[in-house]
Each structure stands twice: as C-alpha cells, then as structure tokens.
Amino acid sequence: MSADELVLKRLSTQQLDALIDAQNEIFADYIIPIRSSREFFAEFMRSVGGKLEDIIVALSGDEIVGYVNPVVDGTEAWIGGLGVVPRMRNQGVGARLMEAAERYAEEEGAEEVLLEVIEGNLAAEKLYERLGYIPRVAYLSAEGNATQFAGFGQPPRRSHLENILALHERSYAGTCWQRRKRCALEESARTCEIYRNDEGFVLLRRVAGTGFIPFLGVDPEHGRKGVGTCLAKFAVNRLWELGTFKIAVYNIDDNDANRRMLDLFDFAVTLKQTEMRKRL
Ligand SMILES: CC(C)(COP(=O)(O)OP(=O)(O)OC[C@H]1O[C@@H](n2cnc3c(N)ncnc32)[C@H](O)[C@@H]1OP(=O)(O)O)[C@@H](O)C(=O)NCCC(=O)NCCS
C-alpha cells in the first residue's frame, strides 16, 4: 500500500496493544533505545496530560504503521510522540500525521504547537523545519555517579506534593512541557522521595541501581545563592545512601548555570534536545 492510501484515524482503545507493538518497531533503531509497554506508556501519558483517544494513527488496512500523540492544554499544544515504521518512511506519512495533529490542536483552541527533537535526529529535524517549526531552546540529559557528600548545610526536610506545588510553579515556569506541567510533578511524586526547604525542592528516586533526580527547583527570588547546589549535593548523597551507582537527570535547561552545576558534580551530557515551536 502506498502512503497516499493510508487512512488516518483516532486510536480506539482496542488498538492499544497494536500501538505499543508499532512503537517498539518504530523506536528499535532510535538514538536512545525505548522499549514501550502498556505500563510505561500509561505512566508517560499521565505525566504529560495526554489522552489515548487523542492519538492519531496511520493505518494500512488494520495495521498501525505510524502515529502522532498531540496533547493540548489551553492555548498550547505539544507533540508527545511521532513515529512511522521503517518500511513506510520518507513517503510523507510523518508530514501527514503532523498536519492532522496540528488541525486537531487548532480545533481544540491551541495557538501554538511545541515539540522536542533529539540533536542528530536528522529526519525529524528536516520534517519539522519543512513544516515551519522554529528552534527555541535546548534541554540536556546527563549522567554521573552517586557520591557521598557532607557539609551541604541544613538538610532539606521530607515533604509532600501539596507543599511543593507553588515552588514548582515558580521555579519551572519557563521550561519544557515535561517539567513545567503540574501533571508531570504529580506523576513523579507517586514514586519519588520529596524534599524541600524554604527556597527550593528536590525529587529523587531509585530504580534498581540507578538514581534519578526528575525535579530540582529553586524559587527564582532566591536564585544565585547556592540553594540549588546544596539541594543537588543532598540529592546525590541521598541516592548514594540508597545504594545507587549511577544518577541520571533529564530535560535540564541548557544554560551556563546548569552547565556549571553539571561540571561541579562531574556529570556528563548524554543527550541534547531542541525545543521547536510553531504558531498555528
Ligand atoms: C521522523 C519520522 C517520524 C519521519 O517520518 P516520515 O514518514 O519518514 O516523514 P516524511 O516522509 O514526511 O519526511 C521525512 C523527511 O526527512 C528526510 N530525511 C529522511 N532521512 C534523513 C536523513 N538521514 N537526513 C536528513 N533528512 C532525512 C526526508 O528526506 C524527508 O524530508 P523531505 O520530504 O523534505 O525530503 C520517522 O523517520 C520516524 O519514525 N523516525 C523514528 C522516530 C522518530 O524519530 N520520531 C520523531 C521524534 S522527535
């Protein structure tokens, strides 16, 4: 079947397993290996505020050969995933899916669409540029070792989701969808230890031998006073206490302060993503 004959439709709930299979085929040769599953995808959807019924699939007969996952929140929309199975690539399917997602977003009231692309994903970069997406800022992922620290000042206190919502809103206001939306914080709060002091907060989690610090925020009013460094030392030390070896951080704004912080902790950048946006 040629690309023009494919039918684009909303995902039905009975197609969820087929979508997961298609994702595993699509992302098998991806820059970072992604292995999807029902649980993985459900957690992802909760964390970004996505709805399964908003996903658009490209069908060849009954078979899913591509999908796009638009998420709308007020006047902004975000593309939570786009993919086409290898044998159907470079025939315009990706562009058709993106155009359908933009139409849907516009109907829902969005005025702008955002997305992120991993640096070096040339096909996706080319497609988005051709559709009129403009690069805006970059986000970094990095990895380092858990280390024992002493002398990080007064340790932050164990806290709860309700007590960090305002701090999160202030400290993450200008950053990426996957960190600034409240649903992202709520999802992480289900599985993470939460700590805060008067000026900032940090979330951390151990999964097998690996530690994650999904959130570390400082109220902008208290920026540049070493609060972030103290919270980071606390988190790295806590993950060391929990018995992790490696620590991963994702989606950090690529700016001088964060680069200095990564250097200080000897964290190496593993991935850079560019946020692109288009006004509808
Ligand atoms: C990105 C992806 C969705 C594109 O789907 P597609 O159906 O091939 O998209 P289209 O055919 O509409 O457009 C692809 C464009 O990439 C270009 N392209 C393909 N491979 C390329 C490469 N290695 N270098 C540069 N450009 C490339 C094609 O020439 C085409 O551009 P053109 O029409 O201007 O010539 C598909 O490659 C894919 O599923 N990749 C794996 C998952 C992924 O990366 N998703 C996006 C995450 S941000």
Structural summary, described in words:
The structure is a single chain. A twelve-stranded mixed β-sheet has the order 1-2-3-4-5-12-6-11-10-9-8-7, sandwiched between helices. 32% of the residues lie in helices and 32% in strands. By secondary structure, it is α+β, with helices and mostly antiparallel strands. Helix 2 (38-48) packs across helix 7 (182-189). The mean pLDDT is 95. The protein folds into two domains: 3-132, Gcn5-related N-acetyltransferase (GNAT) (Aminopeptidase); 140-274, Gcn5-related N-acetyltransferase (GNAT) (Aminopeptidase, 3-Layer(aba) Sandwich). Bound molecules: coenzyme A. Coenzyme A (COA) binds next to strand 4, helix 3 and helix 4.
In brief, what are we looking at here?
The protein has 280 residues and is of the alpha+beta class. It contains 9 helices and 12 strands. Coenzyme A is lined by residues 26, 30, 82-84, 89-95, 117, 121-124, 126-127, 130.
Radius of gyration: 20 Å
CATH architecture of the largest domain: 3-Layer(aba) Sandwich
Query: How much helix is in the residues?
Result: 25-40%
Q: What count of domains describes the coordinates? A: 2
- Alpha-carbon distance between the termini? 31 Å
Q: Specify the structural class.
A: alpha+beta
What would CATH call the homologous superfamily of the largest domain? Gcn5-related N-acetyltransferase (GNAT)
* Overall geometry: elongated
What is the CATH topology classification name of the largest domain? Aminopeptidase
In round numbers, the mean pLDDT is 95
Give the C-level CATH assignment of the largest domain: Alpha Beta
| Ligand types | coenzyme A
How many beta strands in the DSSP annotation? 12
Strand order of the largest sheet: 1-2-3-4-5-12-6-11-10-9-8-7
Q: Which strand-content bin applies to the residues?
A: 25-35%
Q: Regions with pLDDT < 50 over 5+ consecutive residues?
A: none
Number of helices: 9
Please describe the biggest sheet, giving its number of strands, its sense, and whether it closes into a barrel.
12 strands, mixed
